Amino acid sequence: MIIFDNFPLICSFTAIFFTQFLKYPIAYFSKGKNTPLAIIATTGGMPSSHSAAVSALITALILQYGFSSGYVAIATTLGVIVMFDAMGVRRQSGEQGIVLVDAIRELNRLSDKSPKTPQELLSEKDEEKVYPEEMALKKYLGHKPLEVFVGLLTGIFVAFVVRLFYQRTGLL
After folding, report:
1. pTM above threshold 0.85
2. Nearest 5°: CA angle at 41, between 44 and 155?
3. Cβ distance 91 to 144 under 8 Å?
4. What is Dmax (Cα atoms) for the chain?
């Protein structure tokens, strides 16, 4: 099939899918979160699928065309931009989302006209209210540097595993 002839493309997509599915056991064992679809279908988290995709692409291009290839130069430039964006701009957007959620909570708390008893105030501290505005706002969009680094290593690993598969099946 034609699509399987494109080794670098297969490496990139395999890295994306692999890292997205890898997020579930990592989240389950590290944080006890047990919502596989929500974790697998979201951005952010450990490892970075963005980093894995571009590093798998770069590694596959190096394996196929060598370090001095123009393809490697283009992919490496793109990869640096993607990884920097995953850590910087997207992470800052996520942190701003947290501030917005806090501001929405505070505005909703201040808009309550009824006076609160001390017991009601204490119970509010223990139980956070969930407002519809919060549900639409994603809190974490980006990655921590460690998540990007692990994604980079994962992408390199995936490229080598896919290469072994290609060599054994005669596709490469």
Report:
1. no
2. 60
3. yes
4. 75
Please check the confidence at residue 127 and state whether its pLDDT lies above 50.
no
**What does the pLDDT read at residue 133?**
43
Give the C-alpha separation, 94 to 75, whole Å. Answer: 26
Which of 41-44's residues contact partners 24+ apart within 8 Å by CB, and which partners?
42/138, 43/90, 43/138, 43/140, 43/141, 43/142, 44/90, 44/94, 44/140, 44/141, 44/142, 44/143, 44/147
Model pLDDT, residue 38: 61
Residues 49 and 130 placed together within one structural domain of the fold: no
- Residue 36's Cβ-count burial label (10 Å; 0-12, 13-18, 19+) is middle
Shared-domain flag, residues 121 and 151: no
Are 10 and 82 contained in the same domain? yes
Assess whether 149 and 105 both reside in one domain.
no
Residue 44: domain span:
1-88+143-172
